[in-house]
């Protein structure tokens, strides 16, 4: 189905979700309306204008020490030292020109198979994974926070689940089927040792929330066809 944003067709792209493409077009049109972009501008100029729009119109609330302490208390598991996860994965790589939908369908099919027959994981990793770890049955060894890309780290550490994770993990490299073999709890860190990290995390969530709200306002004022935008969509999240 063709996506239209205020009557403007949005080209489909294999490596970009329809929601993200629609949000990008909304922001481009906002930059045009503010007079910060010419209609015939190139890609680099469009990105600069969108950054200007976000900087000028998205208000991110400041965080204070009390809010940071409260956030720390609510997310104690995130602020530990020495926490380890032993995991394996199967990577379905996505590169420029890759038919993303087809790759995802293959990954979903294999995830279903492995959820039913987890004993096949190492064999499938050796035969299908696009990561060098495939030769080792997908073995990644022991992982700690900060040792992987953020999307992969979140899937590993923001849950206490063991075994094959129920959903694919999407990263900049592609789609991953992940199994957690063992978890080693870490030592709880006091707020004073992690206060700067807590503040960064809280600011990041506040920014994401402000972006979602801003996009909702733009979407509410626009005529959209072929796509739905809700609170889960922001210009920085695919």
TrEMBL record:
<keyword id="KW-0697">Rotamase</keyword>
<dbReference type="Pfam" id="PF00639">
    <property type="entry name" value="Rotamase"/>
</dbReference>
<keyword id="KW-0413">Isomerase</keyword>
<dbReference type="InterPro" id="IPR000297">
    <property type="entry name" value="PPIase_PpiC"/>
</dbReference>
<dbReference type="InterPro" id="IPR050245">
    <property type="entry name" value="PrsA_foldase"/>
</dbReference>
<protein>
    <recommendedName>
        <fullName>peptidylprolyl isomerase</fullName>
        <ecNumber>5.2.1.8</ecNumber>
    </recommendedName>
</protein>
<comment type="similarity">
    <text>Belongs to the PpiC/parvulin rotamase family.</text>
</comment>
<dbReference type="InterPro" id="IPR046357">
    <property type="entry name" value="PPIase_dom_sf"/>
</dbReference>
<dbReference type="GO" id="GO:0016853">
    <property type="term" value="F:isomerase activity"/>
</dbReference>
<feature type="domain" description="PpiC">
    <location>
        <begin position="82"/>
        <end position="182"/>
    </location>
</feature>
